[in-house]
User: Fold Peptidase M20 domain-containing protein 2 from Gordoniibacillus kamchatkensis.
Amino acid sequence: MSKAAIFATIDQNAERFKSISRFIGDNPELGHEEVLASRRLTEELEAHGFRVERGTLGIPTAFIAEYDSGKPGATIAYLAEYDALPEVGHACGHHLICMMSIGAAVGLKSVLDQTGGKLRVYGTPAEETKGAKVPMSAAGLFDDVDAAMMTHPFYTYERSGQSLAMDALQFEYTGKAAHAAASPHEGINALDAVLLLFNSISALRQQLESHVRIHGIITEGGKAANIIPEYAVAQFYVRSASRKHTDEVVRKVLRCAEGAALQTGCTLKTSNYEYSYDELNTNETLSAAFERNLAALGVPPEQVETGKDHGSLDLGNVSLRCPAIHPYIKVVDRKLLLHTREFRDAAMQDMALDGMILAAKTLAATGYDVLTDGGLLQAVRSEFERSRKA
Assistant:
């Protein structure tokens, strides 16, 4: 029983894993529509002896696959994402992410009957929008997990770092239509309210800390230039380094929205159009174990960059319920940005698929360490408890 056995299992299945990744990459599906991807992934896990629950929490394309050794031990979780982006497909590399985690699970399962413990793969749809990790976390589905892990494809190696807590806010203004030339004084201009909201938020930014991000669009602004718009809608992301601070900023943004309604005479309806994401709380002890395994597999520590803020992740919600990491794995040979067609195309090449296999091995080896090293497991748990109290 050794890591060599884990790596051998992954290598034996590597071509199949690559084929599934290519299939998902060639058939991109938006969040909560990942029917083909979910089917291929669950069938693969069942073929390797996992018990699969489909439609977790009533989400059709979500799943939880589990293998229980029947012996006491830690619970290791790997998280799979497989949703694509509008127009640009798998430009965030989720076709690689899902197979990084499934490859790791298949490899680690090969020794689980000897190590003891439980192994799970969480199929988590729609990370780009209404991420399933949010309701899964809220339902307590990660509360008994000792280590939750996933890796993300990128143009360099990077430690698990931070992410921003985020709220997705929608503001709907309703006014009164009127002929814009003959009787503009009879109208109440909802678009004016949206424009005032944008200007108020622009002024607000001067009094916000540097880690705060507020960005929005107008999704509805009227139907014709000669009609006073009676209905207008704006959507914003509000982000900051922590949930507590994001909540404070949201309260200020809401006051901006209310002020715009008062100034124009419009009525205002406010809602969340996507789930709120919490900040990522990287478990540094678990992250260090991952880096040691990455080095053992041939990536020198000096090639691994410090973790950075890459926006918002629904894994943040998971990381507040159990120890979690989200490192980045190099899969392309030049600096290509995520969410671009260039990254999408490069992430389908042999280098990217080989990087996927490396990530699977590193994740599996880190899970093995948590299962077999009682001191590491206790250190991971202790750090998590300290962070929760803080």
Remarks:
- The mean pLDDT is 96.
- The longest helix spans residues 3-26.
